[in-house]
Design brief:
Layout (H helix, E strand, L loop, with lengths): L1 E7 L2 E7 L6 E5 L9 H6 L4 H8 L4 E2 L5 E2 L9 E5 L3 H6 L9 E5 L4 E2 L5 E3 L6 E2 L2 E7 L15 E9 L1 E2 H4 L15 E9 L11 E6 L2 E7 L7 H11 L7 E3 L21 E6 L3 E9 L2
Parallel strand pairs: 6-17, 8-14, 9-19
Antiparallel strand pairs: 1-2, 1-5, 1-14, 2-3, 3-4, 6-7, 10-13, 11-12, 11-17, 12-14, 15-16, 15-18, 18-19
Length: 286
């Protein structure tokens, strides 16, 4: 199933579409039968198949007429992975890592599909990065590889907007990865049963103003979702609602000659096979 988190007339809503169907059905929080936010349901360990089946009886929702929100707006952890596609590591001139390069984002960076990515006043070097997100549904520590994918409840797409000059100001990437409204997340959440295990073999693309700038598959990951869960849970307890933003393929703007950065008026699209298109305009910070 695919779930869409949205707002309509000031009310939070949740909609669902069955596998292979593009028609969404949903309810807002002021309507009888609203099951709660997707985030609340995931963190409570709810049976999403049961929730979705009930929502399919609700009225149709045209996603073009509502405001889409991130599938999870307040993750406990936003764990991001750098240099995790072999071709991307090569284009940066670095050796492929032997241990995952982990950095974090904060919820204040997140926006939904259709919302504006904001190029900050401080920089003109806002870059795009197409990424697959894995959402943790079952928490755990010291998770075995054989069990790792059982902890993933679903997947989504992400544009890890990166302010490159700030990313390079120190050996830590936190500042360049945490400007407000630079992390687009959506457009929908797809339950794990709808995709290949670990989201493997999915085509992943980025387009800027209709021109393809990244085009790869998730098979180029150095550390797949399974491996990332093992590495991360060795260090920390993963909790329901945490998200893993699993890295970007080659083709990023900073690696081009001349560099290609997002400008006000641009439209950036991230498309992942089986998930959909995450589309966001770009504006300048007021």
């Amino acid at each position: 199933m695919r779930f869409a988190v949205y707002r309509k007339d000031g009310q939070a809503g949740l909609a669902v579409a069955a596998a292979g169907d593009d028609v969404f059905h949903g309810l807002t929080e002021d309507e009888t039968g609203y099951p709660g936010s997707l985030e609340t349901l995931i963190k409570a360990g709810a049976d999403l198949a049961k929730v979705g089946a009930a929502l399919l009886a609700a009225p149709m929702v045209d996603l073009a007429t509502v405001t889409l929100a991130p599938p999870v707006s307040q993750p406990g952890k936003i764990l991001c992975v750098g240099l995790n596609y072999a071709a991307h590591a090569r284009e940066t001139g670095r050796e492929a890592p032997t241990y995952p390069t982990i950095f974090v984002r904060f919820p204040s960076t997140l926006i939904g599909a259709g919302a504006a990515l904001v190029r900050p006043r401080a920089s003109e070097q806002l870059d795009y990065e197409a990424e697959l997100v894995a959402v943790i549904g079952t928490g755990g520590r010291h998770i075995a590889k054989a069990d790792a994918l059982h902890h993933v409840v679903g997947y989504s797409a992400f544009n890890d907007g990166s302010v490159r000059d700030y990313q390079g100001k120190s050996t830590q990437w936190t500042m360049g990865k945490n400007f407000d409204a630079t992390g687009a997340f959506g457009p929908v959440f797809v339950t794990a049963d709808e995709l290949p295990p670990g989201g493997s073999g999915l085509r992943i693309q980025a387009r800027l103003n209709g021109e393809t700038v990244q085009d790869s598959t998730t098979d180029d990951m150095i550390f797949d979702i399974e491996a990332l869960i093992v590495f991360l849970s060795e260090v920390m307890t993963l909790e329901p609602g945490d998200i893993i933003v699993s890295g970007t393929p080659s083709g990023v703007g900073i690696a081009r000659t001349p560099p290609l950065f997002l400008r006000p008026g641009d439209v950036c699209e991230i498309e992942i096979e089986g998930i959909g298109i995450l589309r966001n305009p770009v504006i300048a910070e007021a």
